[in-house]
Design brief:
This protein has 177 residues and is an all-alpha fold. The protein is 75% helix and 0% strand. It starts with a helix and ends in a 17-residue tail after the last helix.
């Protein structure tokens, strides 16, 4: 099985996600309790555009290791890409409240929360989370741009109000196990 895991890693690194998925799937059937296999399978599924399957596999990985930070982060990225904003908000809100070090240091999680809030027309919450992202990492122009979009939408009044529509999102998964 180690050979199949190594093949999965190699195929993923080469961008051959279908082969990576095939190898990880074979191992996951034979070793259903292997956290790393589910995590890596989920990453390959995401990179192959299979969002629902990636969400399912990150869910499996989360059951096996509920405290694994990269699993929480990556699941949120996939939920954002899949436009499942409420689920992302619930996941990241819980994650941040249970992980104080991440709350203080990971600007991208706050930024992704801001994007999700913007997409479900909650501009006040979006502005708050974009501001938090900027406090942590003030040099990311995209954070400022999307905060500006939200603040502009709030200043236009109800008659001409447009929903902030962030144009740049951060969809990058954490490293493989």
């Amino acid at each position: 099985m180690d050979a199949r895991i190594n093949l999965g890693i190699t195929y993923h690194d080469l961008g051959n996600f279908a082969e990576a998925i095939e190898n990880y799937t074979t191992v996951s059937v034979q070793q259903p309790g292997d956290f790393g296999v589910h995590f890596n399978l989920a990453n390959s599924l995401f990179d192959n555009g299979q969002l629902d399957d990636a969400i399912e596999q990150f869910g499996e990985a989360r059951v096996l290791d509920p405290d694994h930070e990269d699993t929480q982060y990556n699941l949120g990225v996939v939920l954002l890409e899949a436009e499942r904003y409420e689920e992302l908000i619930d996941l990241y809100t819980e994650f941040l409240s249970n992980t104080p070090d991440i709350e203080k240091s990971d600007a991208t999680i706050h930024y992704n929360l801001g994007v999700a809030y913007s997409k479900i027309d909650k501009p006040l919450e979006a502005a708050s989370t974009f501001k938090r992202a900027i406090q942590i990492d003030p040099d990311r122009a995209v954070f400022h741009m999307n905060l500006g979009n939200v603040l502009e939408s709030l200043g236009q009044g109800e008659r001409e109000r447009r929903t902030a529509n962030p144009t740049h999102t951060t969809h990058q998964l954490q490293n493989k196990i």
